[in-house]
What we know:
The chain is an all-alpha fold. Helix content is 70%, strand content 0%. It folds into 2 domains: 6-68, 434 Repressor (Amino-terminal Domain) (Orthogonal Bundle); 76-112. It has 7 helices and no strands. The protein is elongated. 19% of the residues are buried.
Amino acid sequence: MSQYHLGNYIAKQRTHKNLSIRKLAQLANVSHTEIARIESGERKHPSPLVLKNIAHVLGCNFLEMMRIAGYLEDDHHTESISSIFADLSTLTKEEIEEVKKFIKRLRHKHDQN
């Protein structure tokens, strides 16, 4: 688990963006009481969907937020996956299909070993 408390992390990101709890809640389509509970530490494990919505509004890395929340292990593998997904955002649909085919071949090769 990270040294960060999820609530502190979200509060810090929210205040950095000059957003109130209510405004973040509105933009993330999450109740303001849920955000307040997360930030206070009362809500320890919000759903990944809630975290995804909050991360999107705050411009935070979703996988990092999942790591801080304790859903993912604290390792370099998460960083690698995150950077790969960031790189995919610039690809065309055809290129993404090629990446999917490549991953499928890698999985098949791995399964055979």
